[in-house]
């Protein structure tokens, strides 16, 4: 996870530690860092921002001893990343679920995102996470579009004992979601997780459908599930979805398989949306509610 980005940052602090660098050499090293960041999927504008912050910070500090230099650089890098990635307050989300439950209202999470990003897997992982925190859920299969989607979700969810509400292919996904909400109300189930079909910004009909699902279900939270493996495109895709449907939180899936790491930084910085979870594997428990901590750790910064 994130070996590319980790190496890029490590090589800067390594250089500063082992050689006396002139102002010009430092500039060159920062240029190198810029290219390495971009190579590792950091969007150009984000790489520029990272460089700017690091430069400013470097200028501010007077490094007392040569051997301390790497620590100083590490802490500057850490501070820079820290300022770019925002965690969601998961406790607030759980609190809302509890409050709604006391009022007899199920909390609705609507999951959206591009094709194959990890939505269905993430929905089941989150059902599991919520169960561990004392909340049962109903999963609505509002993907009535992709062949095999209903069977996939049912198989995955029912293997772990989660309740799935589904209809037939071609059914109105908004109606499936409403069905699930009614069942939750009738059975006092505190959470409804609505899994939807993958779509892209060129699928106009599917985008309208997504808006309809939102309008009809009035979700408490719209969660965008992004795929960290699509690299540079991840941030752009997330922005588009936010424009169309309005996104509250981001879950970034497949970080375990991402050898570069830049898309996590870019998506966080460019959208400015908090990361609710990250997906770190294909198993049901491979979900972390501490994205920033995990990212800093993968970069060797904590
Ligand atoms: N390594 C890894 N694989 C993941 C993760 N999350 C999902 N996947 C895999 O990614 C693939 C696609 O996952 P799905 O959950 O079906 O994605 P989706 O967004 O529902 O796909 P569509 O419904 O077709 O749009 C599957 O093979 C998952 O096992 C993750 O965090 N890590
Ligand atoms: Mg799916």
UniProtKB/TrEMBL annotation:
GO (cellular component) term, any one: cytoplasm
Annotated coiled-coil segments of the chain: none
Main location: membrane
Pfam family, one: SRP54
Keywords: Cell membrane, Cytoplasm, GTP-binding, Hydrolase, Membrane, Nucleotide-binding, Receptor
SUPFAM superfamilies xref list: Domain of the SRP/SRP receptor G-proteins (SSF47364), P-loop containing nucleoside triphosphate hydrolases (SSF52540)
Residue ranges of every copy of the SRP54-type proteins GTP-binding domain listed in the record: 274-287
Membrane topology summary: Peripheral membrane protein
Claim: Membrane is one of the keywords in the record: yes
Any one GO BP annotation for this protein: SRP-dependent cotranslational protein targeting to membrane
Localization, UniProt: Cell membrane
GO MF term list: GTP binding; GTPase activity; signal recognition particle binding
NCBIfam families: ftsY
Family the UniProt entry places it in: Belongs to the GTP-binding SRP family.
Protein name: Signal recognition particle-docking protein FtsY
Source organism of this protein record: Caldiarchaeum subterraneum
Gene behind the chain: ftsY
């Amino acid at each position: 996870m994130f070996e590319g980005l980790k190496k890029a940052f490590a090589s800067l602090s390594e250089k500063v530690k082992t050689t006396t660098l002139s102002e010009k050499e430092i500039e060159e090293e920062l240029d190198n860092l810029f290219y390495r960041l971009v190579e590792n999927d950091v969007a150009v504008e984000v790489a520029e921002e990272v460089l700017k912050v690091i430069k400013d910070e470097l200028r501010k500090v007077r490094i007392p001893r040569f051997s301390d230099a790497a620590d100083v650089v590490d802490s500057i890098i850490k501070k820079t990343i820290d300022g770019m990635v925002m965690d969601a307050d998961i406790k607030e989300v759980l609190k809302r679920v509890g409050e709604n439950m006391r009022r007899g209202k199920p909390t609705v999470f609507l999951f959206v995102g591009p094709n194959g990003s990890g939505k269905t897997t993430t929905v089941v992982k989150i059902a599991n996470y919520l169960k561990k925190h004392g909340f049962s859920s109903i999963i609505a299969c509002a993907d009535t579009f992709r062949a095999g989607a209903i069977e996939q979700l049912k198989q995955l969810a029912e293997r772990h004992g989660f309740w799935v509400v589904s209809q037939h292919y071609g059914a109105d996904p908004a109606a499936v979601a409403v069905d699930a909400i009614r069942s939750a109300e009738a059975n006092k189930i505190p959470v409804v997780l609505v899994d939807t079909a993958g779509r892209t910004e060129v699928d106009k009909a599917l985008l309208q459908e997504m808006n309809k699902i939102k309008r009809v279900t009035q979700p408490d939270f719209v969660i965008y599930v992004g795929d960290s493996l699509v690299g540079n495109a991840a941030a752009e895709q997330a922005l588009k979805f936010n424009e169309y449907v309005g996104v509250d939180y981001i879950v970034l899936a497949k970080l375990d398989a991402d050898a570069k790491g830049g898309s996590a930084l870019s998506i966080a910085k460019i959208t400015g949306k908090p990361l609710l979870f990250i997906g770190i594997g294909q198993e049901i428990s491979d979900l972390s509610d501490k994205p920033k901590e995990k990212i800093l750790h993968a970069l060797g910064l904590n």
